[in-house]
Design a protein that fits this description.
Structural class: alpha+beta
Length: about 650
C-alpha cells in the first residue's frame, strides 16, 4: 500500500513538473512575448513614417472646390446612434442603430452601414455630419504590417485612410484609400534599422509607385507627403490635375491642385486578425460595406481586410504604374479637349445619378432635346447647291453642303490650308508651357501666387489671340482660293498664301482694330451687348480685305454693312459653323483619348492640332459662302438700287 502510494505521488509530481515545463518552454509563451515586442516596434515604425496629408483648401464651409473631409478613425461612425447597420435582404431591414466594433465582428458581405442622407445627392449634409461627428477627434490613419509568404525578404508598411464620404463621379458613403512603403527587411526591427526602398500610392483601382529617393516624392524627413485628390481621395505625388482614362487610373480627372492645407494624422496600428469580438479593433473583421448599398460604383466600399494588398502587398505593388498623366497648365487645344473630357465624365456621372433617382425625368428631357434638335435641323434647306459662284443666295444647310462639296473636290488644298493653322497651335502650346513655368519662378521669388491675375490674363491672351490670327489667315487664304476658282483662274494654295501675305498689313490692321473695339466694350461690362453686336458684324473682315481690296478700317465697315439687317441670321449661322467645328474636333479628339489611353499628352496635343487643322478650312469655306450670300442679298436689295441711282 505504501509503495503504491509512493508510486502515485511520484507520478503526480512528474505530471506537475512536465506541465510546468510545458508552460514555460512552449512556443506559444515565447510568441506572446515576441508579439508584444513587435507591436511596440510596429507602432514605432508607423509613427516614424506616418504620411503628411495635403488636402485641397476650402475657402468656406461646404465649398465644393475644396476638400470637405479629412482622414479619420472609424470611431466617427461606430457607436453612433445616427448610423444604421442593415442586412441585405427584402427591404434591407435594420439590424441595429449605432453599431459598435463588436457588432461588426465577423459579419459577412450581406451587411452594410447606412449613414444619414442620400449618397447620390449629398448636398452639404455629409460634410456637416462629418464636422459634427469628428469634432474633437484628431485626424488619424491606420497602419498595418503586411508580409507575403513567397517574398520573405520584404516587408510592407501600409497606411489605410478612412474618409467619411467620397464626393467624386462615383459618390458613395465612406471611402478607403491608402499608401504603402516597401522595405527590404525580414522583420519590423530590420525595417526600423533601414529606410524604405519604394513607395506605392493607391489611386482608384490601381496606383503609382516611386523609389524612396525619387525626385517626384515629397518627404518631410522620413514621412512621405501625400497629395489627396479632392473628393475622390486618390493619393498622388504632387499638386496638379491628373487624367484617368483606364480602370486602374480611374475614369475622369483627379484634382490635387493648390492651395493646400497640411494635415498631420496619428497612426493606429491594425493587427493581421482579431479573434476577440470585444477588441476595440474587432471591426477589422467586418466584410460588409461601409456605406449605403447602391448599384455599381455608387456602392459603399469594403474595408482593408478585403483589399488585395492586405495579404499580397508585393504582388499589388508590382502591378502598379510608374507615373500618372498630368494635364499641363498651358491653354492649348489639347488641354481644352481634356477639360471637356473631365467635365463630360462628371456630366455623365450626374446623368446616371439623376436617372437612378428619376428615370422618367431624364427620358423626358432627352426626348425634348431630341425634338428641338430635329426641329432646328428641319428649319433650313439641306438640298445640294453648287459651291460656285460664291455670290449667290443659299440657306444655312445649303452652305454646309456646298462647303463640304468644295472640300471634297479639293482635298489637297484643304490640307495645305490647315497647315497654316497647325503652327499657330504649336506656338500656343509652347507659350502655354512657358506660362506654366513663370508662376513657379515667381513663387520662388515671392513675387506672385499660383493663381495670380497676371497668369490668368497671360493664359487668355496666349490661348485666344494666336488662334484668332491663325483663323483669320486661313479665312483669307480660303477666300482667295475660292475667288480664283470662281473667276476661272488656276491658283495653287501657295500662290493664295502669297497673296494673303502681301495683304498682311490690312488683315492685321482690321483684326487688331476689331479686337480692341470688342474687348474694350466687353471689359466695360455695360458695353457687353454692343461688344457681342460688333463681334458678329466684323465676321467678314478677311473676305472684304481679300475679295474687295479694302484696308483694315474699310473692311470692318464693309463687313458691318453686309451684316446689317441680317445680324441674327449671321450670328446663328456663324455660331453653328463654329459649334460644328468644336463638335467635330472634340468627337475625334475624345475618341483618340479613349481608344489610345497610353498616348502621351504631347502627342495627343499634336494630334488635336492636326484634327483642327483639317476642320478649320471647312469652316472657313462655309464662312466665305455665307459672305457670298450676304453680298448677293445686298446687291439685290431695293435700297441699294436707290443709293446707286
Amino acid at each position: 500500500m505504501g509503495a503504491r502510494s509512493n508510486a502515485t505521488a511520484r507520478l503526480i509530481l512528474a505530471v506537475v513538473v512536465l506541465s510546468a515545463g510545458t508552460v514555460f518552454l512552449s512556443p506559444a509563451a515565447g510568441a506572446q512575448g515576441n508579439t508584444q515586442d513587435e507591436a511596440e516596434a510596429a507602432q514605432e515604425l508607423a509613427d516614424r513614417h506616418v504620411p503628411v496629408m495635403m488636402l485641397k483648401a476650402q475657402e468656406y464651409p461646404c465649398d465644393p472646390d475644396g476638400e470637405m473631409y479629412a482622414p479619420t478613425a472609424v470611431d466617427v461612425v461606430l457607436d453612433n446612434p445616427q448610423i444604421m447597420l442593415r442586412e441585405v435582404s427584402i427591404g434591407d431591414p435594420l439590424v441595429k442603430l449605432g453599431p459598435t466594433a463588436s457588432d461588426l465582428f465577423d459579419l459577412g458581405e450581406g451587411y452594410y452601414l447606412d449613414f444619414p442622407g442620400l449618397a447620390v445627392d449629398p448636398g452639404c449634409l455629409y460634410e456637416q455630419d462629418f464636422d459634427k461627428f469628428s469634432d474633437g477627434r484628431p485626424p488619424a490613419v491606420y497602419a498595418h504590417i503586411a508580409r507575403q509568404p513567397d517574398q520573405p525578404g520584404f516587408l510592407a508598411l501600409q497606411y489605410y485612410f478612412y474618409w467619411y464620404f467620397n464626393d467624386f463621379n462615383n459618390k458613395h458613403e465612406s471611402d478607403w484609400e491608402g499608401i504603402q512603403l516597401l522595405f527590404e527587411a525580414a522583420t519590423v526591427e530590420d525595417a526600423l534599422a533601414s529606410e524604405p526602398i519604394e513607395v506605392a500610392f493607391a489611386q482608384h483601382d490601381g496606383g503609382e509607385t516611386a523609389a524612396w529617393d525619387a525626385a517626384k516624392l515629397d518627404r518631410d524627413g522620413s514621412r512621405p507627403v501625400v497629395y489627396s485628390s479632392k473628393g475622390s481621395h486618390a493619393s498622388y505625388f504632387g499638386s496638379a490635375l491628373y487624367l484617368g482614362r483606364r480602370g486602374n487610373q480611374g475614369f475622369g480627372c483627379d484634382n490635387t491642385d493648390g492651395p493646400s492645407e497640411r494635415v498631420d494624422p496619428e497612426a493606429i496600428v491594425l493587427p493581421d486578425t482579431v479573434v476577440d469580438p470585444e477588441d476595440p479593433l474587432a471591426w477589422v473583421m467586418f466584410e460588409g460595406r461601409w456605406g449605403e448599398r447602391r448599384p455599381g460604383s455608387f456602392n459603399g466600399p469594403t474595408g482593408p481586410l478585403d483589399k488585395e494588398r492586405w495579404t499580397d502587398p508585393i504582388d499589388w505593388q508590382n502591378g502598379l504604374r510608374s507615373s500618372s498623366v498630368v494635364i499641363p497648365g498651358g491653354d492649348t487645344q489639347g488641354d481644352q479637349t481634356i477639360t471637356v473630357f473631365c467635365n463630360a465624365v462628371q456630366l455623365g456621372s450626374g446623368t446616371v445619378i439623376r436617372f437612378t433617382q428619376s428615370p422618367g425625368r431624364v427620358v423626358v428631357t432627352a426626348a425634348i432635346l431630341l425634338v428641338v434638335g430635329v426641329w432646328v435641323l428641319r428649319r433650313t434647306d439641306w438640298s445640294e447647291v453648287a459651291p460656285m459662284p460664291i455670290r449667290r443666295r443659299r440657306r444655312a444647310g445649303q452652305l454646309i453642303r456646298a462647303a463640304a462639296t468644295s472640300a471634297r473636290n479639293s482635298p489637297r488644298a484643304v490640307v495645305s490650308f490647315g497647315a497654316i493653322y497647325v503652327p499657330i497651335v504649336v506656338l500656343v502650346a509652347l507659350l502655354g508651357a512657358l506660362i506654366s513655368v513663370i508662376p513657379l519662378l515667381k513663387e520662388i521669388q515671392g513675387l506672385a501666387g499660383p493663381r495670380s491675375g497676371t497668369r490668368l490674363v497671360l493664359a487668355l491672351l496666349v490661348g485666344t489671340v494666336p488662334h484668332l490670327f491663325g483663323y483669320t489667315a486661313v479665312n483669307a487664304v480660303v477666300a482667295t482660293y475660292a475667288e480664283a476658282i470662281d473667276s476661272g483662274q488656276a491658283r495653287s494654295s501657295s500662290d493664295c498664301a502669297w497673296l494673303v501675305w502681301q495683304r498682311r498689313r490690312e488683315l492685321v490692321s482690321g483684326l487688331v482694330r476689331a479686337m480692341v473695339i470688342v474687348i474694350v466694350l466687353i471689359v466695360s461690362v455695360i458695353g457687353i451687348p454692343w461688344g457681342i453686336r460688333q463681334l458678329v458684324r466684323y465676321q467678314f473682315m478677311a473676305q472684304a480685305v481679300m475679295l474687295e481690296d479694302l484696308d483694315g478700317r474699310r473692311s470692318l465697315a464693309r463687313s458691318s454693312e453686309l451684316v446689317r439687317g441680317r445680324w441674327w441670321h449671321t450670328a446663328l449661322v456663324i455660331g453653328s459653323f463654329n459649334g460644328l467645328f468644336v463638335i467635330i474636333g472634340l468627337v475625334f479628339s475624345l475618341l483618340l483619348l479613349l481608344l489610345l489611353p497610353s498616348m502621351p499628352l504631347w502627342l495627343f496635343s499634336a494630334a488635336v492640332a492636326l484634327i483642327n487643322g483639317l476642320v478649320v478650312p471647312f469652316v472657313a469655306l462655309a464662312q466665305t459662302l455665307l459672305y457670298g450670300d450676304a453680298v448677293a442679298e445686298d446687291e439685290a436689295s431695293p435700297d441699294r438700287d436707290l443709293v446707286n441711282a
